[in-house]
Amino acid sequence: MKFIGAGSRPGRPQVDHDSVFTIPNLLTVVRFMGVPLFVWLVLARQEYAAGVIVLAIMASTDWIDGYIARRFDQASKLGRVLDPIADRLAMIAVAITLVIAGVVHWLYLAALVIPDTVLLVLSLSLFHGHPDLPVSVMGKVRTGLLLLGMPLLVLSRLDTPVSGPAYVAAWVVLGLGLVGHWVAAYNYFRAMLRKGGLQPTNDGGAS
User: Fold this and answer.
1) What is the 3-state secondary structure (H, E, C) of 66-133?
2) Residue 1 burial (CB < 10 Å; 0-12/13-18/19+)?
3) What confidence tens digit (pLDDT) does each residue in 102-160 have?
């Protein structure tokens, strides 16, 4: 079964509509709402088990909303902008929460923030806003790995027989996700330069 790009219909190009109230956009809003809930559960209540559930739901919506958008022709211009913002907000806010809770070192947060900060500065400088670039395959894989690794890491904080293996698995997945994060950022950086006219268009595309 195809996981990346699941739901796409062969021979029918995806069209971004002007619709606002769509199921994918609703799921993206749910992902936004999951962020403060996770922060409250972990920092105020120390409810790591509930935090794992919230993260799992947030990660699943990232895939489900894309599937519905492609399968049922509900892709929208708003969703194209909101979806990556929701992903970044979730990853960075969760990382900050885990740093404060003592689950991860601040270097993990820095590894997430530095590439996004560079891309944000470049985007504002060249486009004065969102660059409106398509999400790359590497970007999708990176997001999936990071959203999978974080609940595994929180799960490792629970006093259960799986806490040890979960910790190892979490850092394997997060390590791969961080590598993908930097590779995707580099590809987006080049794509922004090309779109902004600062690099020849025949130099290759973002993967």
Assistant:
1) HHHHHHCCCCEHHHHHHHHHHHHHHHHHHHHHHHHCCCCCHHHHHHHHHHHHHHHHHHHHHHCCCCCC
2) exposed
3) 999 999 999 999 999 999 999 999 988 878 888 788 988 998 899 899 999 999 888 88
Bin 10: left if φ > 0, else alpha if -120 < ψ < 50, else beta. beta
Neighbours of 89 (CB within 10 A): 14
Question: Which ranges of 16-47 does DSSP label H, i.e. alpha helix?
Answer: 23-39
Instruction: Decide: 148 and 59 in contact? Cβ < 8 Å.
Output: yes
3-state class (DSSP) for residue 135: coil
Mean pLDDT of the chain: 87
In the structure encoding, which two tokens stand for residue 68, read together? 């519905």
Best CA proximity match to 142, nearest among 92, 191, 87, 192: 87
Q: What angle do CA 34, 39, 44 make, to 5 degrees?
A: 135
3-class DSSP assignment, residue 17: strand
Which tens digits make up the pLDDT trace of 50-108? 999 999 999 888 889 888 988 888 988 888 888 888 888 999 999 999 999 999 999 99
pTM, full prediction: 0.83
